[in-house]
Amino acid sequence: PEVVNVTNLTKILGVRLEMLVRTMHRLGMENATHDHLLNSDEASLIAMELDLNPIVDSEAAIDLYPRILPADMSSFPLRPPVVTIMGHVDHGKTTLLDTLRKTAVAAGEAGGITQHIGAFSVDLPSGKRITFLDTPGHAAFSAMRSRGANVTDIVVLVVAADDGVMPQTIEAIKHAQAANVPIVVAINKCDKHDADPRKAKEGLLQHGIQLEEFGGETPAVEVSGITGLGLPELEETVVTLAEVLELRADKGGAAEGVVIESQVEKGRGTMATVLVKQGTLTVGSYIVAGTTWCKIRSMTDDKGRPVKEAGPGAPVKVIGWKEMPNAGDEILQAEDEALAKTVVENRITKQQRETQLRDLEVINDKRRKDK
Ligand code: GDP
Ligand code: MG
Hints:
The structure is a single chain. The chain is of the alpha+beta class and about 375 residues long. About 35% of the residues lie in helices and about 25% in strands. It contains 9 helices and 17 strands. The protein has helices at about 5-15, 15-25, 40-50, 95-105, 140-145, 165-180, 195-205, 230-245, 335-370; strands at about 5, 35-40, 80-85, 120-125, 130-135, 155-160, 185-190, 220, 255-265, 270-280, 280, 285-290, 290-300, 305, 310, 315-320, 330-335. The strands form 4 sheets. Strands 4-5-3-6-7-8 form a 6-stranded mixed sheet, sandwiched between helices. A 6-stranded antiparallel β-barrel has the order 9-10-16-13-12-17. A two-stranded antiparallel ribbon has the order 1-2. A hairpin with a 3-residue loop joins strand 9 and strand 10. The longest helix has about 35 residues, at about 335-370. The chain starts with a strand and ends with a helix. Magnesium ion (MG) binds near residues 93, 94 and 136.
């Protein structure tokens, strides 16, 4: 009979070692050390005791994982950088995004309007592209990060030239540094008569931002979100930094991405904006996000145009979800509907088991204290 050790069985079943050991004890199996070998009958018995399918076919272990990327990505094509705008309240984040979005449309089709889908791409005259996340502020940034979604490649730190460094400027710097994401500074509101870019820059220096013009590595651009002054320069600065970062992705293989935002729209159902990270999303394919899945019925880009496929760096609105996924959820493509369903079922089972385990631990803790 096949054998599996206790540690590997925890991985196959997706349970923690303590829970497995407890279950084994309940079944009268006393030898529950991590390297103890179990035969397939014993393993099946343990699985059934945990309300799982007998693991002979290891169905319960089926899940999807992102591909393992090679250390040397140089053979893959460059992808657009993904940018998040951060900074103190009222320093002009929303205005800047609006102006950037408008220029994105102007450069596209005449009369077009951008759809708010949580992210948008700007095509530069140089042919380069930047993807901006449409949710400014560090709250959104850290919410995504706490879910394990490191989508931001570059932070544009907005500092109003009439106000200088403020508490949330410092917080934004800390967030970017903690995430190891490089910063491009946008000294904003430079159209104002009381603008003092010099003072703003000195404030940044005092808070550990080594600006290029003072011998450091952080670029700063003087801009106005209202007049559009300096925005082409800001975009080129972002693109130059992206080239240094050598952001590359594999357009082939199963699609991988992250949910940027999701909502239910009247008459259209549940939709989610997905930012593709690897591979290519295509209409008709199956994707899994958290504990829900989707057969992609249709996709639209950030200009509201229907698209059949979306590659790395492209934000698209995806329709066809069974249930609404959460912002920050990882997207992974499944070969077919059966696999998508199995993965979601297994993830739900895993979640339920984790809840049970937590409840059990609370009860046990209480018992121990009561003694
Ligand atoms: P947010 O809180 O960072 O999103 O800031 P907003 O974009 O809402 O801007 C706050 C205020 O500053 C608004 O009244 C804007 O009109 C104004 N503002 C933003 N950018 C500029 C700019 O470049 N120049 C000037 N003069 N005002 C600006
Ligand atoms: Mg705002």
